[in-house]
Fold:
Amino acid sequence: MGHHGAPGQGVKTNFEPAFEAFEQVARWRGFAVALVLASRDCVKLVNLDGRVAALNPAGEVLLQLDDPMKLVGRLWEETWPELERDKVREALRLAKAGLSTTFEGFCPTAKGEARWWQVTVAPIIDEVGVVRSLLGSSRDITAQRDREGQVKEALTRQRQAILSLSADFEESARRLRDAEARVVHDDKLRMFGRFVGSVVHDFNNVFAAVHGAVRLLRRRVSDPLALDVIGHLENAADRGGTLARQLLDFSRAEVEAAEVFSPAELLTRDSHLLRHIVNTQAMLCVEATPGCWPIMGSPHKFQSVVFNLVANARDAVFANGVITVALENCPALHRPEGLDAADYVSLVVADNGAGMAEEVRKRVGEPFFTTKPAGKGTGLGLASAFELAAACGGRVFIESHEGSGTRVSIFMRRSAVEGEAVATADSVVDPALHGGARILVVDDDPMVRSHIAGMFRDLKYDVVEASAYEVAAASVEGGKSLDLVITDVSLADGLGDQLVSELRRTQPGLPAIYVTGSSGLVIPRDETVLRKPVSETRLAATVLEKLGRLPVAAPELALRQVERIATKVRDPDMKRNLSEWRLLTQAGRRIPSVFDLGPWRQEPPPLGYIVAVGEGDPPKLRFARAGAELSARLGRDLHDSEIVTGDEDMLGDIPRALRRRLDGSPGYDYARFALGDGKISTVERLLLPLADSTGRVGHIFGIVAFNELASTPEPT
Amino acid sequence: MIPNFESVDLARKIEALTQVERDALPYGVVKLDARGVVQEFSATEAQRSGFKKRPAVGHDFFKEVAPCMASPEMRGRVEAAAARGTVDIEIGWTGDFDDPDREIRIRVMSASDGGLWLFMNRDEL
Structure:
């Protein structure tokens, strides 16, 4: 039926729209009721005052209501949790204004089960457009929401993971940047080191030349005033040479081959530099036992470890800070747990500063781990200590407590071999052993070359000089054969070792001595390398060694003798002296040096003495040092007294016993007195030969032991 | 039977032998009288010692042999022991000979007649 009836329906037509509207309304009402009843959503009729007027059956089920009348008449918003009420109020407000809206909200059921709802609030508008009431239709979206929640959660987790990855990445990038910066810094230092090295190299040559000139002058000048001036010059050149050497040692950045060195000597030498580092910030005590054993490693590494640790200590101490650097021997018996059975030298750097927290202590030793601000520390201090210890077959021990200071102990295995640092001042280089050989001296520095050449000409050698590789190679071609080459490691036009191998093609086995003044050069393997400035004594002795003119003590004989003596010695101290001597001889395949006596070199034990072996045939013997008790027993001061050769008699005399030691073997004798007076007295004497730096027996260490025990009367 | 060089009463055992037996011993025997003059020099000693020279032991023991023991007290003790006849001194050397593998031990013991016995044992190892 339409609004417009057929023509002729007149009056009827006036009512028709009203009827139609009514019918329509009635139909719509029925339709609406059916819709509400059939809906699976929770449908509520809400009055304009916001109170619930009616609820469909599905709503009863969804809301788990026992009695729907409990809901009817209540403000709809109050059935929602506090947090969601705003949404409800807003939706109702808009609906009252004629707008339909939808929101999602959380509202538990009457039985308390969690539900998420999608709620549509719509106005119910009458035929004239007035909002009469409101309709709320809520759909349960909990299941859907849960799935979304899981997805969201997963997304969140991934996002967090990505965030933390990117944070890690940023951290790594930052560390990389820091490391790069450090490398650049280190590179700069290294370049600076090389620069210093090259300058020092030149300095060395200057000092070597000054030395040579002074030596020449001294021989030709007799005026006492001039000699005095020459003395000053010599001292100055010595000091300069020492300084240069120290600078050179410090600029040496490359990994050095391990060598035997005396850590005590290095530490003593560097102690004033250490004081400079510590400045006035703390009191520095450096205690290097002069008799400290040599160790095998890189002297430069050792120095830098000491410097790093002292710098660490300086940064850790407060006012009244005390930093102790101590170096001492740690015999195998006293070694700490965890170290292989061997003798060690321990370096301890201790301070009374801030100490380290547990977590810091755990990380120390990691390269680049530092607690200091940028530019203050490289984080290589303790790491280098660990490296040093590892290289020396030892370990690092760190004791540190917050507030009570830090103590870093590095145990380095004792070297069984004596070092180059062995007292060269005592060396005896007999001029009679020199001369009569042809030596090629190659150095591109004319001052150094002429200095070395002059020295060996004075020693009656036939010296050929060359300034460079080419000249050297040419100068020997077709000429007389050489007996020895002394060359700088690096020549202006080539390397020293290339020259030597060139020469050895025509003269296989040609002995060579390399000298070097610069740092960072590749040192030829298995060759004798002397570092500038080289002392004349050292160079001369090395030449004799290379020419095979130095008798070397025979350790086999010596060791055989030791075994025999070891079964006889009774005095425990003497047993120990003997076994140390044996260990050193076995390990070094040559007898120990006077250096191995340690502090006894200056101050022998009360019953010990040191005999210096001099020139002549038979060699002159002189007590260089003697223990106080021994002098007292003999009733005269033995110090510096000549030992005169007595008549040989059947029981042997002291000079003869001493001279027997010149073959490198130890000697032992004893006397036991049982005189029937209730006491048995024994006297034992042990003589241990010691090599000088040239390998000859230069000293003899003697020790006497007296013991007395009560005897039971002998049966008669 | 050869008296053991180590025995506590070696002097008494040696005195019980004849001179021929003493000459046959593996170690050298020298007899000094109370004044330090050599009375007997065994064949073994003459052969082994190599230097065929009279020992000077009795004369300046402290100066030549054990200068470290040259204290008045020690001198006194040795002299008293010599007077009592209770001297028993043993001296040993290792590594003091041309042949480094040789070593020598000497025992100096009071003889019953107031003199001294010297027994020289060379170990060849």
